[in-house]
Amino acid sequence: MKKIGIAKQVSPVLLLSALGFLMANPLGVKASAVEPVAEAKEMGAIAQTLPTDATALDEISGVAELDPISNTATSSNLDQVTSVSQLTDVKPTDWAYQALQSLVERYGCIVGYPDKTFRGNRALSRYEFAAGLNACLDKVQELIAASTADFARKEDLDKLKRMVEEFAPELAALRGRMEALEVRTTTLEKQQFSTTTKLFGQVILGVQGRNSPDIELAGFQFNDNSDQINVITNVQLSLFTAFSERSLLFTGLQAGSGRSYSQLLTNNVLLGYEGDTANSVQLSDLTFRHLFGNNFAIVAGAEGVNMVNVFRGSNRIESAGQGPLSFFAQRNPILNLGSSGGSGTNAGLGFDWQIGPRFSLQGVYFTNRPEDPANGGLFGGENGGTTVGAQLTIAPTDTIDIALSYANSYSPSGFLGIGTGDDQVALPTSVAPFVRAPIQTNAFGGTISWRVSPRITIGGWAGYTNSELKGTSGNVKTINWMAFLNLPDLFGAGHLGGIYVGQPPAIFQSDLPLGRNVPDFASNGNVFASGEGGQPGRTTHVEAFYRYRVNDNISVTPGVIVIFNPNNNPDNDTITIGVLRTTFTF
Question: 452-461: buried (b, 16+ CB within 10 Å) or exposed (e) per residue?
């Protein structure tokens, strides 16, 4: 049952006046000179007009649920009064005067401040109200035990009945609303997906288009004829099955269609929400998560175990449906290492350890071909990729988040598996087997985010990789960086503006044997004699977007992306992309 909280600022006059009328006939006390049966019927009618749910106060099952921090002893600061005239700030013209007089003079359960004031307009805490209620209940119990003649009088009950009659429309409306809520609650309980499995979903519809630049690749000139406006759809379903309060199974399903890129510019123009499966449903996540104690959790699974899903993100708006538009702007690319940009089959094991209030450590191991023991398996082998990574997250203040990441990855194909920028860092051998270019990569990265104010966040990241081509001499090194500005609640609550400027991964040094260096081949077309050296230029990525929140479930995000020197080549034309992304969540 949903709890409904009381307003923080409540006049004690209002609550005590209601208490005064209700205390006129406490439970179990008969009113004198009244037919018992008739009186019982009247009280039953009154009870039926009142809501049965906790519409004013939170449901409290015991004193242990109360907040001990705000519990103050009222008796030490308040003085008992025996007459309402002792309260200097209470006047006979006050609307609650009679109720207060009844509680003070008949029941003696109201106290005043040492300066003989009642302060009826001061905010009343729940503890003060509970103390006053308890005092009045104790007095009533004393009256019952003593069997005195000062029981609740007939005229008091008549007042209560008149109040019920006067407020009958309001009470009826409350009862109607409560009945409607009960019906809705019953319906939801019957129609809910599962008592143990909860379903969440996200549907993304993207409309995008770009210009048609001239591109130089491997010594040839091409015109990228992918400037037609197209539509991309992506549907993601997430099912969380709880086995206990500490264990759950996460199952992710995904289906999508459409793409924004050609083979010439894949890693430059890739958008964050692309996932072309030709509309076939694919398993994207299958992981089991368990919490040990209060600070250590593990994740293990056959699909979806990688750094993206295990590590904590310092940029809190990281999201393909709600955050930046491009794939590159989602996160530091080294976190995609070995996972094919997060879209590959990744099975493995990870953990998340909250070391202290401001420090946490995450770790993960995964392989990209677990279903093929002959060529990969759980431990990779020569033809399967494996990655091990760790991340230390630090929050030196409440407004600063820092993440320091390291990963070591093996790839048999010469690809880092990051899905953006210079992903391929080594060419395969010119002799059989032609597809092999086994590399061992060490990657280092750091991300920082500073919430300057609730509506301004600035941050950035940097990443570095150093890959060794197995069986030969030489290394390949890449670097990437990003600076970003997030503007939450820009022009309205729930909206978001963002500006991102950075450089995708670029090879700045490659000294592999002849015929194995990517930069010389990509720029000059030297297939069998590609020599040492880095890329001739650096790509610069500029992105601006504005997410407009239509309601709690729908957002629309227009944006523009400009890419200078695509493929890290200054001879290539600038690319301009216009995007309109619509996201529906449920």
Answer: eeeeebebbb
DSSP calls for 437-503: --EEEEEEEEEEEEEEETTEEEEEEEEEEEEEETTSS-EEEEEEEEEEEEEETTTSTT-EEEEEEEE
The per-residue DSSP string of 379-438 comes to T-TTTS-EEEEEEEEEEEETTEEEEEEEEEEEESSSB---SSSS-B-BPPPSSSSTT---
CA distance 530 to 519: 8
Strand, helix or coil for residue 308:
helix
Given this model, what pLDDT does residue 373 score?
75
Distances (CA, A) of 145 to 19, 22, 24, 140, 181: 21, 19, 16, 9, 41
The answer to whether residues 24 and 39 touch, using CB atoms and an 8 Å cutoff, is no
C-alpha closest to that of 503 among 443, 577, 565 = 565
Supply the DSSP string of 67-114, one letter for each residue: -GGG---STTT-EE-SSGGG-TT--TTSTTHHHHHIIIIII---EE-T
CA-based nearest residue to 452, from 489, 485, 483, 490: 485
* Cα atoms in the 13 Å half-sphere on the side-chain side of 270: 24
Q: What is the pLDDT of residues 528-583, one digit of tens each?
A: 667 788 899 999 999 999 999 999 999 999 999 999 999 999 999 999 999 999 99
Residue 434 CA to residue 73 CA, distance in Å, equals: 82
Q: Are 446 and 311 in contact (CB under 8 A)?
A: no
Instruction: Please name the residues in contact with 238: beta carbons below 8 A apart, sequence gap of 6 or more.
Output: 199, 200, 201, 202, 250, 251, 252, 285
Output the pLDDT for position 370.
Answer: 77
Pick from 387, 311, 298, 420: nearest CA to 350: 298
DSSP letter, residue 326: B
For 350, phi then psi, to 5°, come to -145, 170
pTM of the model: 0.67
| Greatest alpha-carbon span in the chain | 114
Beta pairing, strands 214-217 & 282-292:
unpaired
Give the tokens for residue 565. 């020197």
pLDDT recorded at residue 454: 93
Report in angstroms the alpha-carbon separations of 11 from 8, 121, 167. Answer: 10, 6, 20
33 sits in the region (left: phi over 0; alpha: psi -120 to 50; else beta) called left
Per DSSP, 11 falls in state: -
CB-neighbour burial class of residue 364 (10 A; exposed 0-12, middle 13-18, buried 19+): buried
The pair of three-digit structure tokens given for residue 405, joined into one six-digit string: 């990441």
Residue type, 217: L
Answer for the pair 566, 268: CB distance below 8 angstroms, yes or no: yes
Name the residue with tokens 């202290």.
Answer: 356
Separation of alpha carbons 306 and 343, rounded Å: 10
